[in-house]
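Review session, final week

We close the course with one last complete record, chosen because it touches almost every idea we covered. It is Malonyl-CoA:ACP transacylase (MAT) domain-containing protein, a protein from Apiospora hydei with 188 residues. Go through it on your own first, then we will talk.
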Amino acid sequence: MLGVENRTRTAHRKWPFLLTSSAHDKMSLRASIEEHARVVDRYALLDLSYTLGYRRMAHVSKAFAVSMHRSIHETFVQVESGFSFVERKRGPPTVGFVFTGRGFQWPHMGAELIEYSYRFLDSIRALDRALDELHDGPDWSIEDVLLEQKDSSSFHKAEYSHPLCIAVQIALVNLLADWGIRPAVIVG
């Protein structure tokens, strides 16, 4: 049988993964995380993230962490700093998205999401295709400008920053919707 490292694609070893856990109360939640800490070496991080996020029942007490292969042990050993804990009331949560206008953008914004999330990249490319169809569309692509290096980025110019901020916001909404997170309201 292959070891975990042999079953894990090389590309996945550099990706961050969301690890979730839930239980009926905080004490049970901590016990669950401690149990996972004992066996975390036996599983590929991709499989563990998927199973915890999609194959486990959601309860009132929740914890989550973002971890990578190289830091998984520290995440589970240092539970207080590795995980964030949340208690929620029964019933579906109410979520709202608040987006800023221009002025809060920065070069290379969204670049990691382009690299790590094919859903985010798909949205950016769909927006680029829409701009390409315009008879007076830009001669640059959203994807290219978002991936420009920080020291040579055109992001701070108004003709780039406004459409790029909107593109990142649309791609984020689409990505979160793909994860089942839909807002009750969006304001900007």
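Two points worth writing down before the exam:
The first strand starts at residue 17 and ends at 23.
Confidence is low (pLDDT under 50) at residues 1-6.
Good luck, everyone.
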